[in-house]
Write a structure and sequence with these properties.
The chain is an alpha/beta fold and about 350 residues long. Helices cover about 45% and strands about 15% of the residues. The structure holds nicotinamide-adenine-dinucleotide and 2'deoxy-thymidine-5'-diphospho-alpha-D-glucose (DAU).
């Protein structure tokens, strides 16, 4: 089957894994990666496939309405997989409007271009990649299902919830063929070291303090990024229009336990005495409005579409640590310049 697919945000963490998967698994598809290359987007994430005959990169901003409309007109895409976003909760607390612009307005611009250009909707698909954070925060028990009411609490999650609502509005109002997935926390290679796991790996390596927010008792549900990419593949091909699918690995960890596990893996890999890296753990001021617990019930995607994660967490974490230890140049590159400013601002008051 031939298809021309626009993937937005393909130079970022998850997007680069999705682009690579689609370019390699579907040589008959043409994959066009549209990315503004913000601090989080890095073309180096895709050097291994950048010369593939079925791949093209376009630098551009999803909030630029005339540009997006002319791109849709020129390229006549069959489908969109939309990942471009501002994605870091702490940054959304510092600069909420940037999140509203990209995540809400950017999504609306893409939806509107698709509605305008796709006169014949047969075979078309607008796939919006979203987050479990739209459901808010859980207590000690329970899990998010597709029927859990939306209750976002951070500027990031509210902007993603807003974008999800817009996608469903374009489905109900204009009949745009849409599908949404809401995934839990991803980890793996190429994740910008501002998020918990790569930040801790980076700091342990440099023997810098490991900033654990509050008491470290918040719980996240972790999924290997390649398993998220395989789920996106399944939802893109087999998901039903107008439906949402939760994606997760049934893999909950308290932050402090996860940081201890990382410390012990790193001690072993770096030939440090057991317990050495854990001495770097530093409890710092909590994140404002810090959601206590996320847990995804991924039964629907498993039962309806037959998807399951492929990797155990400990194995995935080892692979991830190995990748960061062998790619110091990548880390040095992405953390240079503007990142250092953000990092200093982020931790100066904690
Ligand atoms: P990321 O921050 O690593 O990458 C985002 C990408 O979007 C970057 O390449 C950036 O350059 C690009 N981008 C940002 N603003 C843009 C704009 N205005 N126009 C065009 N491109 C722009 O994010 P990620 O962690 O890979 O997340 C990707 C998507 O998956 C997001 O929509 C996020 O909400 C969602 N998601 C992430 C996770 C997670 O754990 N990281 C979990 C569930 C869902
Ligand atoms: O649940 C999916 C979401 O997961 C995605 O939608 C977001 O894009 C992604 O960033 C992630 O959000 P979190 O806020 O859960 O991820 P983060 O890695 O920032 O933090 C994970 C947990 O670790 C959270 O409870 C806050 C805590 N933390 C984080 C950092 C960066 C710390 O204790 N110290 C830190 O330095």
């Amino acid at each position: 089957m031939t298809k021309k697919i626009l993937i937005t945000g393909g130079a970022g963490f998850i997007g680069s894994h999705v682009v690579r998967r689609f370019v390699q698994h579907y040589p008959g598809y043409t994959i066009i990666n549209l990315d503004a290359l913000t601090y989080a987007g890095n073309p180096e994430n895709l050097t291994d496939i950048e010369h593939s005959p079925n791949y093209r990169f376009i630098k551009g901003d999803i909030t630029d309405e005339p540009f997006i409309l002319s791109l849709f007109k020129e390229e006549q895409f069959d489908a969109v997989i939309h990942l471009a976003a501002e994605s870091h909760v702490d940054r959304s607390i510092l600069d909420p409007l940037a999140f509203v612009r990209t995540n809400v307005m950017g999504t609306a611009v893409l939806l509107n271009a698709a509605r305008t250009i796709w006169k014949d909707k047969e075979g078309k698909r607008f796939y919006h990649v979203s987050t479990d954070e739209v459901y808010g925060s859980l207590g000690e028990s329970g899990m998010f299902t597709e029927d859990t009411p939306y209750d976002p609490r951070s500027p990031y999650s509210a902007s993603k919830a807003g974008s999800d609502h817009l996608v469903m509005a374009w489905y109900h109002t204009y009949g745009l063929p849409v599908v949404i997935s809401n995934c839990s926390n991803n980890y793996g290679s190429h994740q910008f070291p501002e998020k918990l796991i790569p930040l801790m790996i980076h700091n342990i390596r440099q023997q810098k303090p490991l900033p654990v927010y509050g008491k470290g008792e918040n719980v996240r549900d972790w999924l290997w990024v390649n398993d998220h990419a395989s789920a996106i593949d399944v939802v893109f091909h087999d998901g039903l229009n107008g439906e949402t699918y939760n994606i997760g690995g049934f893999n909950e960890w308290k932050n402090i336990d996860l940081v201890h596990l990382l410390c012990s893996i790193m001690d072993r890999k770096l030939n440090r005495p057991a317990g050495e890296s854990a001495k770097l753990i530093t409890f710092v001021q909590d994140r404002q409005g810090h959601d206590l617990r996320y847990a995804i019930d991924a039964s629907k995607i498993s039962q309806k579409l037959g998807w399951k994660p492929s990797l155990q967490f400990e194995e995935g974490l080892e692979k991830t640590v190995d990748w960061y230890l062998s790619n110091q140049e990548w880390i040095d590159h992405v953390v240079s310049g503007a990142y250092q400013q953000y990092y200093d601002q982020q931790y100066s008051h904690r």
